[in-house]
Amino acid sequence: MEMYDIKPKEEWQRVLDTVYRELGMPSAITDKENTVLQVSGQRNPLCSKIRSIKESSAFICSQAQQFMAKETKKKKRPIIDICDAGMSKFVIPVYYQSDFVGTLTGCGVSIAGEELEAFLIEKSTKMNEQDIEELIQQVPQGDWSIISEVTQKLFHQIQNDI
User: CA-to-CA distance for 69 and 49, rounded, in angstroms?
Assistant: First the structure.
């Protein structure tokens, strides 16, 4: 069973577009090996810069995705956490019966009270502190409770549609 056996591309795109519209977070679906299949939304400039550098993308983005996908697969429920750069990230598992099929994921907003990790970003990207601070100012704000509410709603909606 694969993600596109559960929903066609057009339906997944509607789900992804809903995430971006409701949360302001770019989103993606991945298969069970964490390969990105489909995306929606624009990354903020800081995320774009981090992802443009192979080492920082692997250290900050891929590492968080791998860990969270493993945890959500094991716990069989959505997980919301903070990536190593300090931005919110969620991963929703997609199951068909008891078989793990892939994930719905989103990331890239700051949460009030959570500090973005300028030092870690500087070390992994080799950017200077001033450039990082300018990019941090462009990161959109998210609300933890709304992210939680939307991820729970999507988790149940996806599982009920199967």
Answer: 23
Task: For the beta carbon of residue 119, count every other beta carbon within 10 angstroms.
Answer: 9
107-135 confidence digits (pLDDT tens) = 999 998 888 988 889 988 888 989 999 99
Closest by Cα among 114, 112, 118, 111 to 136 = 118
- Please give the residue range of the domain that contains residue 43: 3-161
**Mind giving me the DSSP string for 103-131?**
EEEEEEEEETTPPP-HHHHHHHH---HHH
Check which CATH number belongs to the domain holding 41 and give it: 3.30.450
Q: What is residue 67's predicted lDDT score, i.e. its pLDDT?
A: 93
Number of domains the chain is built from = 1
CB atoms within 10 A of CB 2: 11
pTM strictly above 0.85: yes
